[in-house]
């Protein structure tokens, strides 16, 4: 009720779960970057990138800044995920406002920094703090959201083949999808626009598509974009 | 990155947007309780119920506690909405972790407390801080969520008629729905179970339904229930 002074200071931090798609020869998977901690608590453990909220900085700006500082990345999608505020999740009392971000394959080359490494999102080591739990929640949100928004686009360049789009869905959902059914569903959704160009290479030429930009990547409602 | 000490203290508060359904003779609307502030900043303005996070208390628990203290309510649904953390939203730097809650009609009688009043959610006065913006966002989330979860149930008692359920949807969406189409859609969804009982009164007897409890009110994923 009262808005005088808070009882005792609580630390306010931001962490970001950053997902990218990693393609192998015949497979794709979701990866995320982690930072190795160089001091206690949890020295030597891997943790989500993040940092303290600067008192002169909006929390959204802290998310973008710490993401750029620790990984060099500018995401194609950045959204607040959840504020984790349980007692005991950190030695001092810390509330972490967690964001999640998607980055496109073509920008991930710039991310090789000291103490930063990319991990398979579904096969992580024991992370610092409650970060395993946070990643689980972010993966759940990603899987959910892919069903009702064009969030998969956040992993792809501007133009892509249907096979590449299907690969994104398969990596997120963790299962194979029937190519013919998938084509029918996305063509029926009205969210894709075929271009006149084709991807050529070792396979049969495949038409390139782009997303209909009139459809928002994900509806954020009245929140600032 | 560092987890040593935060730069300067930031206040961490919780606010809650509590929605209930208010029925008039031939209409229903969404209402929420506000608390009149008895001190600066914004003395005399109406504000969302809430309070500071106690350092020894989980943030979720702060939401439940402040909700009970200020309104006497125990909600049928309580979920974290968003953490609002812009600089300048309060004279001191305050991050507000906002929850939203639904209460059933049958429990709202207990809420008449000093300095608390219920307002039409779509016709609010000028609230303290950024609380008008927060309510707008909560209403947007409610309208969105009613499309893909059984959140409307949070406003209703255990058993209800289809007309009562339609009234909830109409109040949330702010428009009339065709009764025959509505009946077809909910009966086809498999989320309702007809009972053998009927509501009698001035109208033709109407069958009472209940929600299929095998379907979660809203999927919260791996977050604690």
From TrEMBL, chains A, B:
InterPro entries: NUDIX_hydrolase-like_dom_sf (IPR015797), NUDIX_hydrolase_dom (IPR000086), WH-like_DNA-bd_sf (IPR036388), WH_DNA-bd_sf (IPR036390), WHD_NrtR (IPR054105). GO terms for molecular function: hydrolase activity. The keyword Hydrolase applies. Keywords: Hydrolase. It comes from the Bacteria. Gene3D superfamilies: Nucleoside Triphosphate Pyrophosphohydrolase, Winged helix-like DNA-binding domain superfamily/Winged helix DNA-binding domain. The keyword Hydrolase applies. Residues 9-143 form the Nudix hydrolase domain. This is NUDIX hydrolase. The lineage of its organism: Bacteria, Bacillati, Actinomycetota, Actinomycetes, Micrococcales.
């Amino acid at each position: 009720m009262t808005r005088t002074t808070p009882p005792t200071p609580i630390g306010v931090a931001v962490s970001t779960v950053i997902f990218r798609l990693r393609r192998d020869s015949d497979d794709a998977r979701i990866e995320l970057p982690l930072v190795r901690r160089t001091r206690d608590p949890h020295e030597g453990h891997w943790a989500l990138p993040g940092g303290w909220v600067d008192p002169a900085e909006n929390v959204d700006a802290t998310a973008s800044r710490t993401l750029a500082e620790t990984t060099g990345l500018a995401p194609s999608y950045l959204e607040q995920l959840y504020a984790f505020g349980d007692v005991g999740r950190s030695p001092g009392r810390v509330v972490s406002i967690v964001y999640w971000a998607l980055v496109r394959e073509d920008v991930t080359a710039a991310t090789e920094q000291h103490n930063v490494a990319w991990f398979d999102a579904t096969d992580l080591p024991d992370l610092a703090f409650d970060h395993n739990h946070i990643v689980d929640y972010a993966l759940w949100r990603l899987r959910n959201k892919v069903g009702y928004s064009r969030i998969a686009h956040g992993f792809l360049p501007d133009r892509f083949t249907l096979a590449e789009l299907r690969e994104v869905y398969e990596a997120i959902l963790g299962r194979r999808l029937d190519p013919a059914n998938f084509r029918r569903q996305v063509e029926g959704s009205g969210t894709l626009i075929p271009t006149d160009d084709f991807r050529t290479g070792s396979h049969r030429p495949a038409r390139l598509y782009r997303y209909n930009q009139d459809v928002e990547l994900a509806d954020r409602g009245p929140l600032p974009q």
